[in-house]
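protien #1 (seq + structre)
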Amino acid sequence: MAKVLVLKLPQTKKTSAEEAQTVAKNKVVAPVVTPVLKEEKPLKPKAKLNFAKETLPVADARVKQKMKRYLASYSYGKTQTNRLHRKAAEWFPVIEPILKAHGIPNDFKYMPLVESGFRDGTSPKGASGFWQFMPGTARSYGLKVNAKVDERKNLRKSTIAACKYLNDLYDVFGSWTLVAAAYNVGDNHMKKQINRQKQDNYYKLKLNRETGSYVYKLISMKEIVKNPSKHGYKDSKTLLAYNAE
């Protein structure tokens, strides 16, 4: 009988890399548990006071102190009323779209609250209405002012006239803070002060008491209307509904 020889071939020796791979396959590896960290909320930057996106230079100690004083004067502890918030809720829906249509910064909606929010009627100098127009200025911007009709007391029409005037002032001064100051004191007087002092920064100009405090009052009004509870006013949803921007 023929013998069948079975040759046993020598096994090829595994490389160290292959051995490591085999061990790795057979080895039970414990799952890696990644610790779940508590999500940290990003820190909110401290809000900066500004008017028409022109930031208040609070690094100036004099400006900071002045702002603090006028802001305190509008606190609930001094006014004892939510009247300004009620007027804002009534006026802003009319004023805001008109400002936007004429390219006027939204912050100018606080001007009627400063001008006529605390009082009604005509000033001793003859200014009247929501925007406290003088008769001559009102007529020059298309408002009827006579014995029978006074359109300074029409919110929509007087706001349109105010926007035209504010845009004219911006063409002259190129700064919304200077525009606000010129609205208060008159453009001719403002130009004289700028030329005389060789200074076109509102916060550095030396102006009469009323005009020198005017922008501070606007910023203060903006702050108490937007953050009433912070200054002692009732944080009512009714009062705050118009604050969404």
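ok now protien #2
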Amino acid sequence: MERKLFTSLSGDAASQLNDTLSKQGFRRSQNVLYRPSCADCAACISARIDVSAFAPSKSQRKTQRRNAQVQRRATSPWATEEQYELFRDYLDHRHADGGMADMDVFEFAAMVEETPIRSRVIEYTHPDRGLTGVALTDVLDDGLSMVYSFYDPDHPGDSLGTYMILDHIEIAREAGLPYVYLGYWVPGSPKMGYKTKFKGVELYVGGEWARMRDPADYDSERHPLKTDPIAEQVANISLPDLRSPRG
């Protein structure tokens, strides 16, 4: 049974709250910040890439060359029919049994457009195939958070998912931002294994970020006694100081 700890993201302090809680393993979905808090395990582990420690592998360099023709365009968070068509094609091929499988065009638009913080839609276009990838990305005070990304599933050999992460690392480097947040990684999940293939990956475990070790070392996070009581989890969350400075 899935359980989440969440809070509303609104008001003048939305960006500060998002920045602070993202550093503690939270993720944004529209105007809500959440973090898995299941009673039986702690297998959903927040992952990010330390940009300064990253260097592409041989395979990743090939992916960059393979997608050399792809062009990037960053826009305001505005949904289009072309994006939705690509999104539906991606879900139908890759996640037909997932929780987003029934999302209609209005729900998709809400996912993209309902954001109280600084967000961007980053489109990737191929000269022959048109729109080939999209990333909904938040700009944090210490990095880029890839909220959700999808791509053309008809060309798996292009490794577009990997390419978009590699490009976000480059965007962060150009902007002087130290991290790229990837969302959650689950030990043993084949669909999430790609997140472990980037040099410089850090995981948020035990209330702190640390460089990833052997993935097998984290199997214990699935143990039913691994999760702290919910009251203890809440008590250990740090919130931003929103008090106005005294004049």
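The domain at 46-212 is CATH 3.40.630.30 (Aminopeptidase).
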